[in-house]
Specification:
Helix 1 runs antiparallel to helix 2. Strand 2 and strand 3 form a beta hairpin. About 30% of the residues lie in helices and about 25% in strands. It is built from five helices and eight strands, in the order βββββαααβββαα.
Length: about 250
C-alpha cells in the first residue's frame, strides 16, 4: 500500500543545518520512525511559525508531508521544552554527548522505542541535574544494552570464561577481560569487585538498583568511556557548540 502523504510523529531535535536562504534540514529522533531528516521551511525568518520550537533537544509533536527526497515539516508543537534548561555549559555538554551517541549509533528510519524513551528520560534528567555529566555512564551502558552490543559484566570478552577477582577493561576488545587474557605490555584499567558491582548497577534496568549505586566510580567512568569509544570508533566530541545547531531565532 502507498503510505499516506501526511503523517504525525513525536520527535526529539538532534541537530539542524542551513538549507538555502531561509530553510533548515532538521534531524529528529522520532518514536514512530527512528531517526529522520526533514525540511523546516522558512524557519530562519524572524516571523516563522517554527520560531522557538525546533530548538536543540526539544521534544515536538510533528505533522509531516512526505517529499521525494526529504519530508517537510507542516506543523511542530512543543511536547516538552528543555532548551532553556540546557543553556548551562555543563548541561549542554552532557545533553550533546547523549544526543551525539544516538545520532551516531541509530540508523535512519529504524524505530527504536526503548532507545527513544531512554533519550527522552536522560535529557529531562540532565536539564534538572546539578551534575549532568554524572548521568552519562548509566545512559551509555543502557544504550549499548538496548542496541544489543553491551559487553557481559561477568565474563571475559576474549575467552568467555567467568571473570576472576582481577579484571581489566580492554578498550580494543570492547569489554572486560581476566588476567590470563591480558597482554602484559599493555596498560589497562583494573577494576576491583566494588568497581564491577558498580558497572552491574549502572547497566541494570530502570528501578532495579538503589539511586546511590547509580553514581559511577572514577575508574568505572573511564571504563565506560573506553567501551563507548570502541563501538563508536572514536571518543565522543561532547563539547558545547559542537552540534552545528543554530536556533530558529538567530
Amino acid at each position: 500500500m502507498t503510505p499516506a502523504r501526511t503523517y504525525k510523529a513525536r520527535g526529539i531535535v538532534l541537530r539542524a543545518r542551513n538549507l538555502g536562504e531561509a530553510d533548515k534540514i532538521v534531524t529528529f529522533f522520532t518514536l514512530e520512525n527512528g531517526k529522520i531528516d526533514a525540511v523546516a521551511k522558512g524557519v530562519r525568518r524572524t516571523k516563522s511559525a517554527f520560531a522557538g520550537r525546533l530548538e536543540f533537544a526539544n521534544e515536538c509533536d510533528l505533522t509531516m508531508h512526505r517529499g521525494r527526497s526529504l519530508d517537510v515539516i507542516a506543523t511542530a508543537d512543543i511536547h516538552r521544552e528543555l532548551w532553556t534548561k540546557l543553556v548551562r555549559p555543563e548541561a549542554f555538554a552532557a545533553a550533546h554527548q547523549a544526543i551525539e551517541l544516538i545520532d551516531a549509533f541509530c540508523e535512519l528510519d529504524a524505530p527504536l522505542p526503548e532507545v527513544y524513551a531512554l533519550l527522552a528520560g536522560v535529557l529531562a534528567a540532565i536539564a534538572d541535574a546539578d551534575d549532568p555529566s554524572a548521568l552519562l555512564p548509566r545512559f551509555s551502558l543502557r544504550l549499548l544494552d538496548a542496541l544489543g552490543v553491551a559487553p557481559p559484566t561477568d565474563a571475559c570478552v576474549r575467552c568467555g570464561q567467568p571473570l576472576p577477582e582481577q579484571a581489566f577493561v580492554d578498550g580494543e576488545a570492547g569489554g572486560l577481560i581476566g588476567a590470563e587474557c591480558r597482554e602484559r605490555w599493555r596498560e589497562l584499567i583494573e577494576l576491583d569487585e566494588e568497581d564491577r558491582a558498580n558497572v552491574r548497577a549502572l547497566a541494570a534496568p530502570k528501578g532495579g538498583t538503589r539511586r546511590a549505586a547509580l553514581t559511577a566510580r572514577p575508574r568505572v567512568v573511564q571504563a565506560v568511556e573506553l567501551l563507548v569509544a570502541h563501538h563508536l570508533g572514536r571518543r565522543p566530541k561532547a563539547g558545547a557548540g559542537a552540534t552545528g545547531f543554530v536556533t530558529a531565532r538567530r
